[in-house]
Every structure is written in structure tokens, then in C-alpha cells.
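Write out C-alpha cells for Site-specific DNA-methyltransferase (adenine-specific).
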Amino acid sequence: MTTALTGTAMIAESAAVPVVDVAPFKTQLLKWVGNKQRFAHDIVAHLPQDYGTYFEPFLGAGGVMATLRPHRAVGSDIFAPLVEIWQTLAAAPDQLVGWYADRHAQFHAGNRVEVYETIKARYNAAPNGADFLFLCRACYGGVVRFRRKDNYMSTPCGSHPVISPEKFARRVALWQERMAGARFACLDYRAAMAQARAGDVIYCDPPYAHSQTILYGAQAFRLEELFAAITACKARGVRVAMSIDGTKKSGDVYCDIAIPSGLFEREILVNMGQSMLKRFQMGGQRMETEAVRDRLLLTY
């Protein structure tokens, strides 16, 4: 479904806008709240194909970038351990495999929960990419939660089978090839977006105001400040796409975000399936009514 925006109201477009047929890429490297990978092909289908540099300033698990396979890109995030993982993927993939294999061996040689808690305690004492890489794959529900008071990771150990080092190594090789055109940096999104120039394209997947305050740095995030950065980008000829809360509920309240008038030209509704966070909160209960539909807003 494609619509155009007038302020916060939506009107049907009079002319069809062509989209690109993009093959899905569903092999995950990292687990992350809000990961768009299963439906990233629907997002990439609406991104410009004639970009200079692709920017993704809320990189997270990187599913959209890996689906796009950009020829030149800057992937960034404010979460240093996460960026360390991406930088190691690019520069030393064998080291990334080694990080995971070492912790996997400890995990299976001892008491799963005790080893997991030891790794988590070490990570919380000195946040680092090597420990975080294993924790995000072994934690309960794949939902990485951070305590608001001190940013400590709080998710307990999961009961699911943890991917083998051999399988993980194959994923590392696949992802390194798909991310070959990218460089990675630990940056605030405003600093990253300020680098974009006319002809570039930015995809933003910010923390969702109603449901994702468990993410690192999300407590201080202000959507109004992102809108200001997007306005500045649009003024200098940078095309911006942004995912935002759609028909997903927070409790009994549907997320209704006020969009600045004239900032976005079109809106696409993307069916995202069921919410990972909601599944975590509901403890595995049936979720037929908890489908998520994201709004993909486009400045072009």
C-alpha cells in the first residue's frame, strides 16, 4: 500500500511509483529487538537505486543493509560493542568466529546458565563486542534488554539451542561478502547523517517511542530531533527513508506519531509479522492479534 502525506493525513497517490523486485535474505548474524531482516526486501524495494553512498545510522542487526548489499555505505550506531562486532566482521572475520567459538565451548562444557551469567557479568563490568556477540545469540528470546539505571544488560539465559561455531562461521563469511562495501563507525545518528551529501540515501530505523526503551541509548532518544536531522538532509538533496511505529499496539494504545507537515512525500505500510518484544513479554502465548505493520516514510 502506497500513500502520500499531507501533514499527518494520508491521501492516495495519483501515479504509481515503481518499486524494485528484491530477493529476501533471511540468514541472521545477530539477534536484535526490531530486526527488520525478514521483511527487509520490502523496505529495500522502495529505496533509490541511484544513490552515491548508503547510510544506516541506527544499524542494529544490519538486516536492511545486508539485503541491499550496497556498493558504498556507512553503517553506524551509538552502541560501541555492537559497532566493534561490525568492524571486526569487516577487518578480521576469523577473529569474530574465534570470539564466538571460544564462548560456545565454555557454554557447552559447563552449566549453561552459570557460564552465561559469567559472560554477562564480565560484559557488564567492561562492555565489549566479543562477549556481546555470544550474549545476543544465547539470551532469552533473542531480546537484549538494558536496565535504565545503569545500562547493564539484564536478559537471562535462553533455553533454545545455540547456533554451532561451524554454522556461525558460514554466516560470518556470507555476511562479510554482503557488507563488503561498507565501513562502520560508532557515531550519534546526527553526526552520521551530517556526512550525507546530495544523491546519497539514508535509511533510519530508530527506537520506537512506545515499546523499545529497553534498547541501549533509547531512553535519551527524541523523535523530534531525528525529524530535524531529516529536514536538514532533505534540504541538501539527501533522500531519507524511515521506519516508524505503524499499527503495532503498546498496551491498548495504538502508536500514533505526529509527523511534521511536508517532510515526507510518501508512506508505505510494511507487514512485519509478529513482534519479537511482544513475544518475549507474553512468555510464548499465542499472538494471533499482535501483528506489526510498520510505516515506511519517504522524503522522495
